[in-house]
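Data availability excerpt. The first of two example chains:
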Amino acid sequence: EKMLRVALFVCAIAAVLASEGIQGTTPTPSQTGELAQNQRSLYSATETKCARHVICKSCIGDIACGWCATSGLCYDGNVLGAFTANCTMWEFAWCSGEPCLEHANCDSCTQDPLCGWCASTQTCTEGSSQGPMFGDCHADQWYGDSCASLPTHLAIQMDAVAQE
């Protein structure tokens, strides 16, 4: 008899909850509509701060943005992907489709994993820590991983050229 009372009590509670609902857990239709409208106004492609970037290089320069190479648009996002778009070719820290010649200095060049800096020509070209893929940059003039060991006089020359 005690089990029957407990079962009836549980059924009564379930019936009350089913008829009244639990306030605060399920949004009303008007709340859902407001949320959808707010999301549209916050994240529409034309109104985000990232949408102002029209090329990959400027897009990834903004820490809150990433480039979708699939669509050719800049979106709000992080290393995991775009917040409001489905993008199969997401680029967050660097632009894979950008040629190495776009890098104007050793630091930005060597941050791109597909590029390296030739100090004798002051140019960035395709390559790796092993050396350039093309051209004839001498091994002692090639910087594929970092510019930390770049001689001081060359670094000063690079800064002067970059400021012009």
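And the second chain:
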Amino acid sequence: VCAHTIPNAHGGLEVCTVQFSRNKKYLLTGGKDATVRLWDVGSGRELRRIFTGNTKHPKWENRLQVCFSFNEDFIFSSDESNNACVVWDTRTGELVQRLTGHNGIVRWISSSPTDAHAITCSDDHRARFWVEEVQVAE
């Protein structure tokens, strides 16, 4: 039984990724409109929108990958404009850090369920394991 539908969740463009928060109250989505969105599951109301693109890439050609960090303080998203994984502050939507080093589009991101670690997989045929502490960008 479908409990709720979010019509036009990403402006009529493809919703590429979805993840529930641990408490199941929130839903994180990423779409081809180059946005990450945080939703209230009960009401379907959008709580936060993070624009991940730039003026050259107002819409992504590829699937936008998103996931929560282990403590849900941060959101990881792919960035096809520079083959990076971007870390956002969940509460403010501010850019925190760019994880760079891939030579191809980041296709998948997974966050450790217990630690501040993440893995990114890319078209460069590499998986990168990130163990750095997240630091605020200046």
